[in-house]
Amino acid sequence: MDTINKLPLEMLYHWESTKADAPYMTQPIGNGKVVEYTWGRAVDEARRMATYLKSLNLPDKSRIGLISKNCAQWVMTDWAIWLAGHVSVPLYPTLNADTVNYILKHAECDVLFVGKLDDWDSMKSGVPESVRCISYPLSPPNNFETWDDIVAKYPPLEGQVHREPAELATIVYTSGSTGRPKGVMLSFENMAFSAAGGIQTLGVGPEERMLSYLPLAHVFERTFVELGSLYAGFHLYFAESLETFVQDLQRAQPTLFLSVPRLWVKFQHGVLQKVPKQKLERMLKIPLLNRLIKKKVLKGLGLDKVKLAGSGSAPLSNDVLDWYRNLGLELLEGYGMSENFAYSHMNKPGRTRTGYVGEALPGVEVRISEQGEILVKSPATMMGYYKDEEKTKETFTDDGFLKTGDKGEIDEMGRLKLTGRIKEIFKTSKGKYIAPAPIENRLMSHDAIEMVCVSGANQTQPHALVLLGEEIRPKMADEKFRKEIEESFTQLIKDVNKTVDPHEQLAFIAVVSDEWSIENSFLTPTLKLKRNVVEDAYEEKVDSWYAQKQKVIWQ
């Protein structure tokens, strides 16, 4: 069917009437057990919850929050909120109490759905007493009204509710690598244009299977998983936990798979711990072994049925991209942001170029400003920031183009290359400007490195803070291991410094012993580096590191 001009609820009614008995969502509930939701059951429960929400007599377009790890109820809640005439406000399931409180108050949420959470005890103090809470079947123990009780008690909302294309559908609070999160207002048209355009470009249909495990509160996952399944009609599987991830993958046997750079690197490191890179490359060059080895590695990752794999949220290093493509996995990078519901650029099969995030998607206008900033415009572009007209005005050009904050360049085939963030550029004591991202990309070619942060504002030369791969971190106290790493990283600095301008050459690599995680605020909920937090954490040590005049320094 033609989905381009259909709004999300229209797609919901389509599957309700044509595929009511077809499986739609598979939800693990522990001990290896799952609950299967057909399209009919999922829409029925959403309609019943919508009846309940209408019974609360909230003003039209009230903001309703949902905080949970990914699960079937998350998706059904979004539908129920729309059916009841309201606006959904997703919150990341890893937020602290202060940020939960800020978002619920800023959005003026009247109701909050509470679901699967690892640390509810530390965040619940952020929920104002005036907010009515509803708990999902897999939520932590609480005294709230439950999803199951409500859908058992209330009848399904009848008929086909119509929401206007320009109506506010959701407020997405950015994961905020700097400062307070901003509320990105997205309309039904924004969401529809992004989801339908992406699905059509990739040629995705109802026969696909997808595992949902990245946060649905992030537009990357929400576009391709929740909205993607709504526009293509494919089967969604949910992950139960990190501990069961391998079993969840094997159950789903996904044909579509999305991840973020840090996880693609982790998957690669897991393989290279079992088979060293050089040995794997040698085996892949033997014609008789090539196909067998590729299949075995991808099967070990649970990705042997994957037809299309995607990476987004941040740039992936060229070496990692090439490594996966060498295994026969069509790993496509895309580019988008909360402000355009992840709809901007995408690599297409057979037209990829390493280091580029692809061509503009249908309906996207793009240009590069005199300052080198990427400017984009499409029907997926946000309505603006909630309660912040000044910031909204700052973010758009006079002719309606969105200022992305990213620097880039476009090749002769229209493919876009990201060359750094405008706000990440820093100045050395020599007065020279440095964009850290391209240097970080080169450093990430080393197998031992999981994450890196290039810094050096007001220093003579930049330096790199490096987090080693999780599997090898325990060896940091071993002298022999340290010597090997020092030799390898010294050579890495030489190799990288040959490829950059003199003022960009690295003074040293500092190997850190700390964990960089969401919990200690070094990473955003989508595993992107919070550069300012990382830099602040090591600020007191930096001068002494420069004074050591060593190429590799251990924290």
TrEMBL record:
<dbReference type="InterPro" id="IPR000873">
    <property type="entry name" value="AMP-dep_synth/lig_dom"/>
</dbReference>
<dbReference type="InterPro" id="IPR042099">
    <property type="entry name" value="ANL_N_sf"/>
</dbReference>
<keyword id="KW-0067">ATP-binding</keyword>
<dbReference type="GO" id="GO:0005524">
    <property type="term" value="F:ATP binding"/>
</dbReference>
<dbReference type="GO" id="GO:0004467">
    <property type="term" value="F:long-chain fatty acid-CoA ligase activity"/>
</dbReference>
<dbReference type="GO" id="GO:0016020">
    <property type="term" value="C:membrane"/>
</dbReference>
<dbReference type="InterPro" id="IPR020845">
    <property type="entry name" value="AMP-binding_CS"/>
</dbReference>
<feature type="domain" description="AMP-dependent synthetase/ligase">
    <location>
        <begin position="20"/>
        <end position="386"/>
    </location>
</feature>
<dbReference type="InterPro" id="IPR045851">
    <property type="entry name" value="AMP-bd_C_sf"/>
</dbReference>
<dbReference type="Pfam" id="PF00501">
    <property type="entry name" value="AMP-binding"/>
</dbReference>
<protein>
    <submittedName>
        <fullName>AMP-binding acetyl-CoA synthetase</fullName>
    </submittedName>
</protein>
<keyword id="KW-0547">Nucleotide-binding</keyword>
<dbReference type="Pfam" id="PF23562">
    <property type="entry name" value="AMP-binding_C_3"/>
</dbReference>
